[in-house]
């Protein structure tokens, strides 16, 4: 198939070109993101391959339909950036990569917890400056703490198992509980109880109408004072204004985020010589107990190989008229 890739970096091109040797699709890589202004680049192609911050709203999709695009292939798990109703109306199918190394994201959530707790990012800088003082580096034992997992799908389940391995008591909230986790000793509770009991809360549910700003002022009020909140899901699971307030009031003890509500246009690019006008983001970065990474939870060699493999197989299945096992429907 002739496929236009958007929001691509060199690593995307490297992994896709290598994997495509056994698929034989015609791939064209654009650095620009896909939106209603750039949709015309898709002219002459049969499919577009997009990532987390491409804006597949109704206007973009209608333009893609004008250029006879038949398939939107997401090279990610989340699909909150696609207007599925508009895609269906325009007879464009949508496929995704539902699971690619879920351990990559779960392990990144653990990295955020350990860094925030034991302050290894600060210790690294101190030691490089010959400062061996331990002042203000005190952490806490993860062992024995209560961990709350919101969303125990593929990634949340991996994360829960790692935390069980640390010797934590694991609470979970999900609209569809996972029996295997229950057998391993995870306690499914209502959201309120999870918020009240957990020392560490990690978000692994998708972003949708029900979960938008799930962590709002009310949620922060219910949490234990000094709790740690980790978000490797999607930025808008957290109400940024409310989290800034909870940090200012010293209600929230730690915040580790790999995703940010307004990350589109900010993340995945070198902006070191650009003025950042996002005051909320700058406020977040001013707190000593906040750690931000730029949506790199998925970024392991194993995950990139799987993303390329599954995305290209999705394209081949569509081309061959096979059943689309990774189709996303409205
Ligand atoms: P999944 O679909 O396997 O699991 C999501 C779980 O959330 C399911 O068990 C579902 O029942 C639950 N859920 C749905 N609505 C809920 C609600 N209102 N309240 C509580 N639970 C709810 O998805 P997976 O693969 O585990 O991924 C989770 C999310 O992680 C994705 O939607 C995506 O946003 C994010 N992600 C982030 C990455 C990163 O690089 N930081 C990479 C990959 C995914």
TrEMBL record:
Signal peptide: none annotated. InterPro entries: D-isomer_2_OHA_DH_cat_dom, D-isomer_DH_CS, D-isomer_DH_NAD-bd, D-LDH-like, NAD(P)-bd_dom_sf. The keyword NAD applies. The keyword Mitochondrion does not apply. Residues 3-329 form the D-isomer specific 2-hydroxyacid dehydrogenase catalytic domain. Residues 110-297 form the D-isomer specific 2-hydroxyacid dehydrogenase NAD-binding domain. GO terms for molecular function: D-lactate dehydrogenase (NAD+) activity; NAD binding. CDD domains: LDH_like_2. Pfam families: 2-Hacid_dh, 2-Hacid_dh_C. Keywords: NAD, Oxidoreductase. Belongs to the D-isomer specific 2-hydroxyacid dehydrogenase family. This is Hydroxyacid dehydrogenase. It comes from Leeuwenhoekiella nanhaiensis. The lineage of its organism: Bacteria, Pseudomonadati, Bacteroidota, Flavobacteriia, Flavobacteriales.
């Amino acid at each position: 198939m002739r496929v236009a890739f958007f929001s691509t970096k060199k690593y995307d091109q490297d992994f896709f070109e290598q994997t495509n040797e056994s698929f034989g699709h015609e791939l064209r890589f654009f650095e620009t993101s896909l939106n209603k202004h750039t949709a015309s680049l898709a002219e002459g192609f049969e499919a577009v391959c997009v990532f987390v911050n491409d804006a597949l709203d109704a206007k973009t999709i209608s333009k893609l339909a004008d250029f006879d695009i038949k398939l939107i292939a997401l090279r990610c798990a989340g699909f909150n950036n696609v207007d599925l109703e508009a895609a269906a109306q325009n007879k464009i199918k949508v496929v995704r990569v539902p699971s690619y190394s879920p351990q990559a994201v779960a392990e990144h959530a653990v990295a955020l917890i350990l860094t925030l707790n034991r302050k290894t990012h600060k210790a690294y800088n101190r030691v490089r400056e010959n400062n061996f003082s331990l002042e203000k580096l005190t952490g806490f034992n993860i062992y024995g703490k209560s961990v709350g997992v919101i969303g125990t799908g593929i990634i949340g389940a991996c994360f829960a198992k790692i935390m069980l391995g640390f010797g934590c008591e694991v609470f979970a909230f999900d609209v569809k509980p996972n029996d295997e986790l229950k057998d391993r000793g995870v306690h499914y509770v209502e959201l309120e109880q999870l918020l009240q009991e957990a020392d560490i809360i990690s978000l692994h549910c998708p972003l949708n109408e029900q979960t938008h700003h799930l962590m709002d002022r009310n949620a922060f009020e219910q949490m234990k004072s000094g709790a740690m909140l980790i978000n490797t899901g999607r930025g808008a699971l957290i109400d940024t204004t409310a989290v800034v307030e909870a940090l200012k009031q010293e209600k929230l003890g730690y915040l580790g985020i790999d995703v940010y509500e307004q990350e589109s246009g900010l993340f995945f690019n070198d902006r070191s010589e650009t003025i950042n006008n996002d005051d909320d983001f700058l406020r977040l970065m001013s707190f000593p107990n906040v750690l931000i990474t730029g949506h790199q939870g998925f970024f392991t060699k194993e995950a990139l190989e799987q993303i390329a493999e599954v995305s290209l197989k999705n394209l081949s299945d569509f081309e061959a008229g096979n059943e689309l096992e990774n189709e996303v429907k409205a």
